[in-house]
Amino acid sequence: MKADDRLIFRLPSSRKTEFINKVEKEGRKAAEVLNELVERYLNEPDQRIEVEELNSRLKKVEEMVMGESAA
User: Are 21 and 30 in contact (CB under 8 A)?
Assistant: First the structure.
């Protein structure tokens, strides 16, 4: 079985210090908190798809209204 992958990213050192201090204060591990954040993000609906769907619905409503006002 392949070992878990790593994700490396940059953030301001003050933000990192703030994060580590809070994690330690809560008695947790940074990886645990970050994994929870990633999991929560992945479970959110794709907002881009929702906007496209709303735009499509709006266009249909506008077409209906314009069709009714022309009659």
Answer: no
In terms of Cβ atoms closer than 10 Å to its own Cβ (0-12, 13-18, 19+), residue 33 is middle
Helix residue ranges per DSSP H, 26-70: 30-43, 47-70
Nearest-angstrom CA–CA distance, 13 and 29: 18
Backbone angles phi, psi at 7, to 5 degrees: -125, 120
Structural domain for 29, as ranges: 13-70
Report the distance separating Cα 43 and Cα 48, nearest Å.
14
> Under a CB-based contact definition with an 8 Å cutoff, are residues 20 and 30 in contact?
yes
Across the 71 residues of the chain, what is the mean pLDDT of every consecutive 10-residue run?
84 98 98 96 82 87 81 58
How many structural domains does the chain have?
A: 1
